[in-house]
Amino acid sequence: MDIHEHQAKDVLKKIGMPVPRGGIAFAPEQAMHEARKLGFPVVVKAQVHAGGRGAAGGVKLCKTEAEVSAFALSLLGRNLVTKQTDANGKPVHRLLIEEATDIAQEIYLGLVLDRKSERIMIVASREGGMEIEELAEDQPDALVRMVIDPAMGLLPFQSRELAFKLGFTGKQVGQFATVLRACYRAFRDLDATMVEINPLVVTGTGDLIALDAKMSFDTNALFRRPEVAALRDPGQEDPREDAAAEHGLNYVGLDGDIGCIINGAGLAMATMDMITLSGGQPANFLDIGGGASPERVVAAFRTVLSDPNVSVVLVNIFAGINRCDWVASGVVQAYQELNLSLPVVVRLAGTNVEEGRRIIDESGLPLISAETLAEAAATAVKVRPAMAA
Ligand code: GDP
Ligand code: MN
User: Fold this and answer.
1) Distance between CA 222 and CA 227 in Å, rounded?
2) Which residues form the ATP-grasp domain (predicted)?
């Protein structure tokens, strides 16, 4: 789970991170009010769960109230498209108004979970501000890496070593240790998966300050971090995935036109592959999991069909805990309740499969039964253009 920049800064500030003074605004008037409180110039920043805002016009230095108001008006309620979003972008509902910082140098500092060493890894570079992925590719030597031993924690000599490698001197060495300790403690104590300060800035007076902050958290640990869970902003997430999650379903949106209702992630992958092999493209897949009731199957149909690109639905169930007859009843119920007219291909296997097939075949509805996964995928691809035409 991601959180907003202003939330990450609040979290980090509480444990010692130096950040610019600032306030949050949901409307242009509020943005002007916050700017007046801080004094000009200010920096106005769109709060979305994506980086690359600077290059996309989501960050602006404003010298007057009129500038703040005009910029706020142009951003709020719109979607911001950056290099890190899809073509639709992310909606801007809040702005961070901050005192402007005098930048002498921009440093990159990131903490990530390194799966290879099974440890928290610090990645840092003197070439901050720019895209770290590009830097890692073009100048891998410009990146400094260091792993933290979980039994020892972050040790003072590590902070100093890294500070020297980044070229810090004098008071900056101590300031960097404070910055790094805040990042590490936030990461460890809040079950984060990523903490990123880009840029960490050296100001005109030679002091360090975090100009940007991003944090991601382990969703599986949210149950024990209510204070983190409270920072969730559903407005930044795919509404379809959200709606599916409410029914205990996992939804993944894709670009094609074949809607897929499947049980189990492995079977979903195999089905995606089969569809592609047959020359088609999945529009999405929805994992109904084990023990799907007819009601859940109906909810699954509703979610899959909320994508207007779907021209055929493929139901592929290998029932172990599930029961084919229940799934079949759900398909019939969905077809009637939702007044469907598009083709639905159903492949059932496993528990109560004969009963399930009988329900499908005797429903009197234009449901297409398939014996195997290969046949189901090929059929879905074949019946689709006939409908589209
Ligand atoms: P991102 O593009 O989404 O990562 O957003 P950032 O918060 O990193 O801002 C992008 C860029 O805006 C930074 O790299 C800075 O160069 C610039 N910027 C942000 N705040 C200030 C500021 O207070 N003063 C100045 N001069 N530039 C700033
Ligand atoms: Mn940034």
Assistant:
1) 9
2) 9-228
Whether pLDDT at 291 is above 80: no
Whether 209 lines ligand 1, by a CB cut-off of 6 Å, is no
Asked if pLDDT for residue 290 goes beyond 90, the answer is no
The fold of 21-100 is Dna Ligase; domain 1 (3.30.1490)
CATH class (in words) of the domain with range 239-388: alpha beta
Which ligand 1 atom is the nearest neighbour of the CA of 101? 23
CB atoms inside a 10 Å sphere around CB 259: 28
45 labelled binding-site residue: yes
Residue 387 has a pLDDT of 47
What is the residue extent of each domain of the chain?
A: 1-19+102-236, 21-100, 239-388
Give this prediction's pTM. 0.79
pLDDT over 90, % of the chain: 82
Question: Is the fold of 1-19+102-236 the same as that of 239-388?
Answer: no
Atom of ligand 1 nearest to the CA of 43: 23
Cα(206) to ligand 1 centroid in Å equals 18
- CATH class entry, domain 1-19+102-236: alpha beta
Q: Which long-range contacts (CB under 8 A, 24 or more apart) does 189-192 make?
A: 190/11, 190/215, 190/217, 190/225, 190/228, 191/217, 191/218, 191/221, 191/222, 191/224, 191/225, 191/228, 192/111, 192/216, 192/217, 192/218
For residue 87, name the pLDDT band (cuts at 50, 70, 90): confident
Instruction: Give pLDDT tens digits for 209-255.
Output: 999 999 999 999 999 999 999 999 989 987 777 777 777 778 888 88
**Which protein residue has the closest C-alpha to ligand 1 atom 15?**
129
Q: Is 52 in the pocket of ligand 1 (CB under 6 A)?
A: yes
- Find, among 320, 371, 370, the residue nearest to 350 by Cα: 320
Residues tagged active-site? 108, 196
CB of 270 within 6 A of ligand 1: the answer is no
Q: What is the mean pLDDT of the chain?
A: 93
The backbone torsions φ and ψ at residue 227, rounded to the nearest 5 degrees and listed phi first, read: -70, -30
Give the ligand 1 atom nearest the CA of 45: 7
